[in-house]
Amino acid sequence: MKVSDLEELGFKRITDGDGELKHGYICDLLSEVMAKAEADTVWLTVQSHMNVIAVAAITGIRAIVLCNGHKFDEDTMEKAKAEKISLFTTSLNAFEAGGKLYDKGLR
Amino acid sequence: MIFKGDFHIHTCLSPCADITMVPGAMASAFEKAGTEWVAITDHNSCGNVEVFEKVLGVHGIKSIPGIEVQTIEEVHVLVYLKSTKIAMDFSNEIRRHLPNVENDPEHFGYQLFVDENDNFIGMESAMLSASTDLTIDDLWQMVKRYDGLFVYAHIDRMFGVVKQLGFIPEYPPFDAVEAKGDVKVNCTILRSSDAHALSQIGKPKMRIKARSRTFDEFRKALIGKDMWSF
User: Fold this and answer.
1) Are B131 and A29 a contacting pair at CB < 8 A?
2) Residue in B closest to A49 by C-alpha
3) What pLDDT score was predicted for residue A49?
């Protein structure tokens, strides 16, 4: 699926960007994500501080969905634009959001 | 005597701190703010502690060697140590608990060593913004092995123990907490600037009753609740 398909699933788009998604990853510990997430991933988390963008840029994560109704910091959105990481928010929890992505074929 | 203190300060060694956080500039900022007693607490390293102690000392500002360690739970803990020598030993041991990944300064920030004249003299290659592989318990054991003080940093903020775990665990014990808002704990609550830029160095919030500005007096005041926020 494409990053833009996340909008059709009901996730609210915060910053631009597109590309092919192959994997999903759910985790809130940045060190775990950095060590284990693959490229072309959409990452579901409740962490919103700036370091999430650095972790995404280094691992090749294309999109981040911030769950549970949390909001991104201003700094994080700016950094995401610079790094071309697509940010989304949702009121769903990570399990519910992940289920939607699993149904769409992400693994 | 009553001293004015700020015990959570970053320098240009911290990846997220401004590169203008060099000893000369910070000494001036502390003098202007009326800060007499500080602790240098960079992320996962004591590499700039000694040079700051020297330069701040010239300006009459005493500093306690410190470090802000990130545990595997991504909880930040402030550790205060007796001397720069002990701090460096502690720092070297922490370095062995960091992931074997080189810091990418463009993404995570520059980690600069500095000399007494505010010149950058090197760059830390280890990724100081990462978590160590130490649990909170492991870190507590290690701190006590070095006879240091274990203080949960900004417990009610990002990377704070309450924010990360939802509560303060019953074990291990801890010597104090640092907080921004109202928290109910039966120990000293440190209020600090956690300054990452010169503009964040403001009037010091802590008042400490002590005979002199030594580590032992700091420990006594911290444990004995002879310090309070103002």
Assistant:
1) yes
2) B158
3) 87
Cβ–Cβ pairs < 8 A, chains A and B:
26
pLDDT at residue B153 in the model: 98
pLDDT of residue B216: 98
Per-residue pLDDT of B23-80, as tens digits, reads 999 999 999 999 999 999 999 999 999 999 999 999 999 999 999 999 999 999 999 9
State whether A34 and B158 contact (CB < 8 Å).
Answer: no
A31, A49, A50: residue with CB nearest B131: A31
Count of H-run helices and E-run strands, chain A:
5, 5
Interchain contact B131–A (C-beta under 8 A): yes
Which domains, from first to last, does chain A contain?
5-103 (3.40.1390.20)
User: Which residue of chain B has the CA closest to A73?
Assistant: B158
pLDDT at A13: 98
Q: CB distance A57–B107 less than 8 Å? A: yes
Distance CA A3, CA A19 (A): 6
Q: Is B199 or A73 the better-scoring residue by pLDDT?
A: B199
Residues of chain B found within 8 Å of residue A31, distances taken between Cβ atoms:
72, 74, 99, 130-131
Residues of chain A with pLDDT under 70: none
pTM of the model: 0.91
**pLDDT of res. A50:** 87
Nearest by CB to residue B107, choosing from A29, A31, A58, is A58
Topology of domain B2-229 in CATH is TIM Barrel (3.20.20)
- CA-based nearest residue in chain A for residue B74: A29
ipTM of the complex, rounded to two decimals:
0.76
